[in-house]
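Handout for the seminar on molecular recognition.
Each group receives one record of this type.
Step one: identify the two inputs.
Step two: read the structure output and locate the region that could contact flavin-adenine dinucleotide.
Step three: write two sentences on what you found, then compare them with the reference statements printed after the record.
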Amino acid sequence: MSGVTCDVLVVGLGPAGAAAAGAAARAGLSVLAIDKRRQLGEPVQCAEFVPLAMGRYAKDAFVQRIIGMRSILPSGVIEQSDFPGFMIDRGAFDRALAAQAAQSGARLRTQTALKGLDTGRSEAVLRGAGQEAGTVRYRVLIAADGPHSPVARMIGWPAIPTVETRQYSLPLLKPYGDTDIWLSDAYPGGYAWLFPKGDVANVGLGADAHLLPDMKTPLDMLCAQLIREGVVGDKILARTGGAIPVGGLRPSLVQENILFAGDAAGLTHPITGAGIASAVVSGERAGRAATEFLGGKQDALAEFEEDMRDAFEDSLTRAVARRRWLMARWHTPAALLDATHKRGWVAFREYFAA
Ligand SMILES: Cc1cc2nc3c(=O)[nH]c(=O)nc-3n(C[C@H](O)[C@H](O)[C@H](O)COP(=O)(O)OP(=O)(O)OC[C@H]3O[C@@H](n4cnc5c(N)ncnc54)[C@H](O)[C@@H]3O)c2cc1C
């Protein structure tokens, strides 16, 4: 691979990277997009919900509509709220976005990992499976490399704090149009969920790993309850998990000719863990910013950052503040109260109060 040059190097082909690669390639730039995975989108690490606004991206991966959300408080009281969106086949979603980028002319390389960066020379060291490391020269680099962003690490930026998750897919025994959310001190630093996906239920939980080192026991207990209630069957069809960034937006999204998008930028919502939509939006915007910048618009990268802050900063800042507030209350008597969780969860007006 040595000696390769491109206008835009995209690191990571999740939703952010695929959207970025597509946007830059459609504008006529030469784009190389890499991912260390063997098959894009696999293994799926997701509960697979996207909001309605993602409809046009989700049509190749659509599984079912979601109407509402049932937020279940510690007392057992249930708050029903609107939560319109879709359940998707996340693997198919990621691959469809990547296929669109390829059709637009982006060169995609799987099993190819970023191993090093020389930012002074705008050179990346890549290694493909079974290959010698090679270098690629880029004019702009888009870091869409997920919650643990190797690009951020390589340029000396701090890691974003994350929560851990664990999820089982189980047979869903009755049709479900809503998502269920359990708010409880049993899931400190997060919550538990059931997302219905046709005849399958994604049942999982996210939590602060320091407060809950063993996530298997509470997940097994929740599944046992759902099995007893006849909601799900007892056969585990798939297991997954992964990290979710909860630190909010990075202090900076641009360094020289490097832009950050998606989880790597800290765009995932620190309370809900939702990050697919912001990954797609930020990826597309990063691809357009790279195009404008290479077309001679000096402040295009700064404008990208400004747009991302305008679109996401208020909501992320509130979520970070609520998370911090909740973190002081887990495993205290306050964590047993409905009122605490109402202030900490997006379905309640208390969450949006000053
Ligand atoms: C269990 C779980 C459930 C979730 N459920 C939902 C949900 O229902 N709805 C929702 O909106 N969000 C959900 N999220 C969050 C969502 O999955 C992420 O926000 C989203 O994937 C972010 O997309 P991204 O493209 O920024 O990063 P990613 O999808 O993480 O993609 C990053 C890519 O970079 C690649 N990469 C990393 N390092 C390198 C390297 N050195 N070289 C080359 N490639 C590299 C990785 O292989 C990966 O493919 C969930 C997350 C988890 C863990």
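Reference statements: The two ends are 54 Å apart (CA to CA). The chain has two domains: 4-43+91-160+246-325, 64-86+162-244+331-352.
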